[in-house]
Write a structure and sequence with these properties.
Structural class: alpha/beta
Distance between the termini: 48 Å
Number of strands: 7
Shape: globular
Length: about 220
């Protein structure tokens, strides 16, 4: 499959799942099909996100990667010294990440952002959300935004990376870019919201937003 065929297949799976009232079930179908050699995951570049690499610093705190996919962002943070938990709603994605990095220090889990384990609430000093919210719509998107923020410990940081659009722009096809209002709706104080273009050809407009939970909350 070329890139457009990959995206078309993922969009069809997403549309079918959403029409059936299941906002996230299509992820497992996509990753399972990729494991069988029947599809490719269009966002799985098998390298860490460049906007994460440009932002991240060495540390030894508790970090979590939301919607970790095949594990590249999680492994990058672990390589910087962070104690990383990574999760994805797709069990096939998690199994593939573990097989790609058999000696990893990352704790991989199959879990749903819309219903995460209760012990993860406000448990992480660094939360990385890259490209997950943008593939959800409506109530699922609103719940995901709240759920991501709820993982951040007092004094902790949330990093959000997503496609960007103006309020007046057509959201187009999946992935559906976030407006500034949606980025600012993460229920934590914003440290900075960057409006950037990436290095793709042609360049894609992105948000890179950093939030921090007050130490006493």
């Amino acid at each position: 499959m070329n890139v457009e065929e990959q995206r078309g297949y993922a969009r069809r799976l997403a549309a079918e799942s959403i029409a059936a009232g299941d906002a996230t079930g299509w992820f497992e179908r996509l990753y399972a099909a990729a494991d069988r050699g029947e599809a490719s995951v269009p966002w799985a570049d098998l390298v860490p996100n460049p906007m994460l690499r440009a932002w991240a610093r060495p540390g030894s705190d508790r970090a979590v990667v939301v919607g970790c996919g095949l594990g590249d962002d999680a492994e990058y943070l672990a390589g910087l010294g962070h104690h990383v938990t990574a999760f994805d709603v797709s069990e096939s994605a998690v199994a593939r990440a573990r097989s790609r990095f058999p000696d990893s220090r990352v704790e991989y889990h199959a879990a749903d952002l819309l219903s995460p384990p209760p012990e993860w609430r406000r448990a992480f000093d660094l939360v990385v959300e890259s490209y997950t919210v943008q593939v959800l719509r409506g109530e699922a998107r609103r719940r995901a935004i709240a759920g991501v923020a709820d993982l951040v410990a007092p004094g902790g940081t949330l990093l959000v990376i997503a496609r960007a659009r103006e309020e007046s722009d057509d959201p187009g096809r999946m992935p559906w870019p976030l407006t500034r209002a949606e980025v600012e709706s993460f229920p934590l104080p914003a440290v900075r919201v960057e409006d950037l273009f990436d290095d793709e050809d042609p360049p894609v407009r992105r948000w890179r937003a950093e939030f921090r939970r007050p130490a006493g909350s």
